[in-house]
Amino acid sequence: MFLDFYKLREQPFGVTPNPRYLYFSPGHREALASLFYGIETGRGFLSLVAEPGMGKTTLLYQLLQRWKGYVHSAFLFQTQCDSRELICYLLDDLGLKSSGKDIVRMHSELNDFLFRETKAGKRVVLFIDEAQNLSDKVLETVRLLTDFEAPDQKLLQIILAGQPELATRLSRPGLAQLRQRIAIQARLDALPPNEVVRYVQHRLRVAGYIGSELFTPGAMEALVERSRGIPRLINNICFNALSLGCAMQKLRIDAAVVNDAGGDLSMDCSVPRPVSPQEQMTRGVTRGLRPSPQSVYGRVRDLFLGHRLFQTSVLLVVLSSLGIFWGTRTRPAIARPADVHELKSANSSPASETASARRDAGAADGSTSQPILRSDTRASSVRSFTYVVQPKDTLRELCVSMLGRYDNAVRAEIRQLNPQLKNPEHLNPGQEIRLPLSATN
Q1: Core vs surface per residue 416-441: b (16+ CB within 10 A) or e
Q2: Among 20, 170, 203, 325, which is most exposed with the fewest C-beta within 10 angstroms?
Q3: Do 10 and 3 contact (CB within 8 A), yes or no?
Q4: For the chain, first and last CA: distance in Å?
Q5: What pLDDT shows up at residue 369?
């Protein structure tokens, strides 16, 4: 609805975890590096804790993508289960048969599988999302899974991801054995105000927006206050704000639009105070004089309908005047609902299509493909990994997305890791380079 109005190639604030829109805030980069390092060094048990909407699942997918081809993974979402069901889910996700087997046979088959994968040089990683829903008994079963080990290493790496309730539960005395085995505890905190601004600008840029700042400074302040720095809330508020702004024909989103959009997402269900009979009578008299509260979608619909009907009326008046001027006696047709929708296509012009094509080409040149990484077991340092260069990759964009900066220190470290690399500024698709897991100061 608002893509053409704001000259966007695609929806910038979608609800699905599109990896192209992943924004690496400093907190996300630190959490990703900690989990990557924990798997690299075989620490066994890791955890990731964050508030709802902070992007835990997206981060786990990104971590899995970076280990693609080197690990055999299982991803469990169904956490409201008993111990036997958990083992069944695990075996099924690993491609092993579990139907009709008792838990002893399933443990034996899992142990054999882990030994085969380890002998083949692959790690096995179990991701458990929404782990705060696991019962204490099932958490104990998860702890026992780390008993699968060889004399020199763990056969199974486990990452528990969940909301802050997970950390609270792990602090209980009854789960002390599990808590002591968690070697690395990563955390995602809400985005600070300056990162909220960068987050919004990043998603608009990926969606193809070109121009001055779409959100005014006041709008950004309102967005920070209403979203509390939670990416999911930022997406919802921005989507509604762009819908309202388009309906109101606003080329820039101001604070009033953001507050209006954020108010529609409020879930304030507080109990109303008692109303006196006199107030009830007054409300009954004035109810017909005041419009009832309406959602953002209702207002957008009404604004668009009113705007299109106004355009239709003007068009009909102009056509009628032209007919009278040329001596024709034509009767203006009554606007039908179909006519209102047909006018939308009439607003586009070849010039706008040409500008859109230029924007798409420019966005394609500036976009970065998702990293394809694998661990380099031959690397002399566990703080580096091997990256397979993709089309349109540049060293600057890779370092900014992975490390958060691109300066002389980073370039020097990359040259040290890649002595065979003659021209770091020119990368060829399919070329393998080693990148530091985290940049040194």
Answers
A1: ebbeebeeeeebeeeeebbbbbbbee
A2: 325
A3: yes
A4: 46
A5: 39
* Orientation angle between helical segments 337-346 and 296-325, nearest 10 degrees: 80
> Can you give the residue ranges of every domain in the chain?
26-188, 193-264, 372-436
Write the pLDDT tens digit of every residue in 257-295.
Answer: 999 988 877 644 333 444 444 444 433 433 333 334 444
How many CB atoms lie under 10 A from the CB of residue 302? 12
| Euclidean distance between CA atoms 316 and 313, whole angstroms | 5
CB 123 within 8 A of CB 117: yes
- Residue 110 CA to residue 87 CA, distance in Å, equals 9
Asked if CATH classification 3.40.50.300 holds for the domain at 26-188, the reply, yes or no, is yes
Residue 184 pairs in a beta bridge with: 46
Phi (first) and psi of residue 330, to 5 degrees: -100, 145
Looking at residue 435, its pLDDT comes to 79
Nearest to 203 by CA among 14, 332, 333: 14
Statement: 193-264 belongs to CATH 3.90.1300.10? no
pLDDT per residue as tens digits for the range 371-384: 434 444 333 443 67
DSSP string for residues in 17-38: --GGG----HHHHHHHHHHHHH
CA atoms within 13 A on the CB side of 333: 8
- Cα–Cα distance list, 257 to 215, 229, 237, 293 (Å): 10, 18, 10, 16
Question: Contact 65/401 with Cβ under 8 angstroms?
Answer: no
- The SS3 assignment for 433 reads strand
- Half-sphere exposure in the Cβ direction for 136 (13 Å, CA): 10
Please tell me which of 1-10, 130-139, 140-149 the model is most confident about, judged by mean pLDDT.
130-139
Q: In this predicted model, what pLDDT tens digit does every residue of 57-67 receive, in sequence order? A: 888 888 887 77
pLDDT number for residue 302: 52
Name the residue type at position 170: L
Which whole-number Å values give the CA distances from 325 to 320, 328, 399, in the listed order?
A: 9, 8, 67
What SS3 class is residue 205?
Answer: helix
Q: Report the distance separating Cα 215 and Cα 258, nearest Å.
A: 9
Beta pairing partners, 125: 73, 157
Dig out the tokens for 207 from the structure. 């969606």
